[in-house]
Amino acid sequence: MALPVYASPLERIWHYAYIAICTAIFVFLVAPILVVLPLSFNVEPYFTFTAKMLALDPEGYSLRWYDNLLTDGMQAPEALRDGVWWSDVWANATWVKAAKNSVIIGFWSTILATCLGTLAALGLSRPEMPYRRVIMAILISPMIVPIIIIATGLFFFYSSPCGLIGLDCGRLTATYVGIVMAHATLGIPFVIITVTATLSGFDQSLIRASASLGANPRVTFFKVILPLILPGVISGALFAFVTSFDEVVAVLFIAGPDQQTIPRQMWNGIREAISPAILAVATILVIISILLLTTLELLRRRSERLRGVSPQ
Question: Could you give the CA distance from residue 138 to residue 189 in angstroms, rounded to a whole number?
Answer without folding.
Answer: 10
